Amino acid sequence: MERPILSVRELVRGIKDLVGTHFDDVQVEGELSNFRRPASGHCYFTLKDADAQIRCVMWQGYARHLFFRPTDGLLVRVRGEVTLYETRGDLQIVVRSMRLAGEGALQQAFEALKRKLAAEGLFDARHKKPLPPFPETVGIVTSGTGAALHDILSILERRFPAVRALVCPVQVQGLGAAEAVAEAIDSFNALPAGDPLRPDLLIVGRGGGSAEDLWAFNEEIVARAIFASEIPIISAVGHETDVSIADFVADVRAATPSMAAELAVPDRREVAFLVRGLCDRLHARLTQTVEERRRHIRHLIGSRAFLRPVDRLHTAGQRLDELLLRLSRSPRRLFETRRHRLDALTARLHLLDPRRPLHLGYARVERGGVPVTAAADLHPGDEVLLRFADDSRPALIR
Fold first, then answer.
1. For residue 386, what are the CA distances in angstroms to 122, 304, 352, 362?
2. Which of 343, 376, 113 lies closest to 246 in space, CA to CA?
3. How confident is the model over 27-56, as pLDDT tens digits?
4. Which of 42, 257, 285, 326 is deepest in the core (most CB within 10 A)?
5. 215 and 122 belong to one structural domain
6. Range of the domain at 237
7. Pairing of strands 43-48, 26-36
8. Quick one: pLDDT band at residue 247, thresholds 50, 70, 90?
């Protein structure tokens, strides 16, 4: 019996039905190659090993749940349905999920990035910024629909109603989540100082989930955005047992989003208690100061000086008169003393005047302008000068 002749479409569809019946739910492990994601959001790639390869497609609805960024060379494990692309007759896998393959692949990637950032100093305590004690504005970077946001807002309202919360809702899991979180952090920091919308503090995180769900906060782009932030950041990722790269880089790590809200603002009851204590201390101090001043005034009022101010005024006036009298006498007395001293010196100077003996009838003998004091110094024929009180005459010694 002769077999029927099939059209290409009939053959391809028959093969597609056959493949789909036997390979409608498969898991395949291989290396990513030729990965691309156009504007449609669908992912197209090849999965290969040393001996074979197969085309794969992951529709946008599934691709948005990817928790890591697929790149060529990654070893992955995909799950989906093997089918035939009728237009070209290509065998392909329609992938529903993809995860990193290998034992502890997620942990290995986590540890590798942790070592890299630690070596660069991103975890060092010297880079940690202190949290403001009384923030006026708190920025929140998390999912706009998750329970974490509700918990944060409720606790902020309960603990410190005066604070203003600014929410930047972002995608927190899946492909593109890390970029969205980093962009939100950068946007808050881009606001100029003094802008009322610029927060004093940021809470960055999300509620609990699987390791894949939390992976956006283990991406390098988020870690570097947190490190570069000038605004202090509290990391609040998952539950208490969950640890992320964001926790290591942030200024403060909170075990849960609820705890982050408690760390962000003070408790209004504690603040009220503190204010009351300060008011009591201030009142006690003022009361003590007033009492000390009152005692001092009483002492002044009871003193003799305060009771007889006129006597003190008269005593001060008498003292002033004495000082003025001494001041008036001092120049006159000083002048008399100096004049007597001058007269005495003048008399002594007069007695020592070398011309005084000449007025008494004596003459001074000079030879060559030099006084002669002894007769033995003169010889016959010496010419001398006899100096008298009124004039001088030459003479010759015989």
1. 115, 88, 21, 10
2. 113
3. 999 888 899 999 898 999 999 988 889 999
4. 257
5. yes
6. 116-266
7. antiparallel
8. very high
